[in-house]
Design goal:
13 helices, 8-stranded parallel beta sheet, 41% helix, 348 residues, single chain, two-stranded antiparallel ribbon, alpha/beta, TIM Barrel
Length: 348
């Protein structure tokens, strides 16, 4: 069967993956209300196209923190990628390089950061703060030495959300798959994340920004209050995120939280958003609501599970092509031309 969209790739990935592995990637916290809302909320915004605009030379290119990328979508950090495919993060890095976008590598990578860096893709490093401060310092040092150009400090995981799919399946990292940052395998997600610190504060953001010599983006912001604090404590950017619906169930969908964050930031830092991206039109809606770009995790992960590097690249190219089509039909020659006037809430 020809795979035509992200949902097709997910269905094929579910067919190929072990139920525990699929449940780990696909699942959310609690009753998975927020997981579903992340996707459904995009349907509550309607596009407002303008006609008779020259889109003959339309481009999807943009910049994020000064880095040029081919389209306004980055590969979000996803843990344990060798569970999805034997080449894991290496294949994903090659796909990101081919698509000319930025790979965000998870702290919970199953491939050493140096090996991922050797692929040569543009790369950011997603960081959890560990109880053992030496582990955190070593991760930051590795990221800097390996040419990662930004840190994504993930702040919505002081403790792990209750992910009931993992409890039902008993998902554990299979034999031979090791978390590179910890040098350990055979762990459940809960055992892995028990090593991270529940005591991270805004002071840690300040210290990281001052000591790492890398721009720090705060990932996991959902409110205007925290957006303002991020700006005040040295963040170079914000990622509006609810961890893919995997942490606190019942919080806002990210596209719903985005406008208040944009308003609070007042242009001081760039704002990105993740969660629920399934179509290129979703990306354009996020741009219209003020995002500089989006991050997508599950979508390229399904491609990885289906076909390794080739599958992940195919999903990224599919989303790029959908973004281009949406821009052309919206009457926007580039991502920079998309404005708040190009969307409106659906009135029921």
């Amino acid at each position: 069967m020809e795979l035509l969209n992200v949902r097709d790739y997910e269905a094929e990935a579910e067919r190929r993956l072990d139920p525990g592995a699929y449940g780990y990637y696909a699942g959310g916290a609690g009753d998975e209300v927020t997981l579903r809302e992340n996707v459904a909320a995009y349907g509550r915004w309607r596009l407002r196209p303008r006609v008779l605009v020259d889109v003959g030379a339309c481009t999807t290119g943009t910049t994020v923190l000064g880095h040029e990328i081919a389209f306004p979508l980055l590969v979000a950090p996803v843990a344990f990628q060798r569970v999805a495919h034997p080449e894991g993060e290496l294949a994903m890095a090659r796909a990101a390089r081919a698509a000319a976008t930025i790979l965000c590598l998870s702290t919970m990578t199953t491939t050493p950061p140096a090996d991922v860096a050797a692929v040569g893709s543009q790369r950011w490093f997603q960081l959890y703060v560990f109880r053992d401060a030496a582990v955190t310092r070593e991760l930051v040092a590795q990221a800097r030495e390996c040419g990662f150009t930004a840190l994504l400090l993930t702040v919505d995981t002081p403790v792990l959300g209750r992910r009931e799919r993992d409890h039902r399946t008993g998902f554990t990292l299979p034999g031979g798959v090791t978390v590179a940052s910890l040098g350990r395998g055979g762990m459940t997600p809960a055992e892995t994340f028990a090593l991270t610190s529940p005591s991270v504060t805004w002071r840690d953001v300040e210290l990281l920004a001052a000591e790492s010599s890398l721009p720090v983006l705060v990932k996991g912001v959902l409110t205007a209050e925290d957006a303002r604090l991020a700006c005040e404590h040295g963040a170079a950017g914000i990622v509006v995120s609810n961890h893919g619906g995997r942490q606190l169930d019942g919080v806002a969908a990210t596209i719903e939280a985005l406008p208040e964050v944009i308003e609070a930031v007042e242009g001081r830092v760039e704002v990105l958003v993740d969660g629920g991206i399934r179509r290129g039109a979703d990306v354009v809606k996020a741009l219209a609501l003020g995002a500089r770009a989006v991050l997508a995790g599950r979508a390229p992960l399904w491609g990885l599970a289906v076909g390794g590097e080739e599958g992940a690249r195919a999903v990224l190219e599919l989303l790029r092509d959908e973004i281009l089509l949406a821009l052309q039909l919206l009457g926007c020659p580039s991502p920079a031309a998309v404005t708040r006037a190009h969307v409106e809430p659906v009135r029921r």
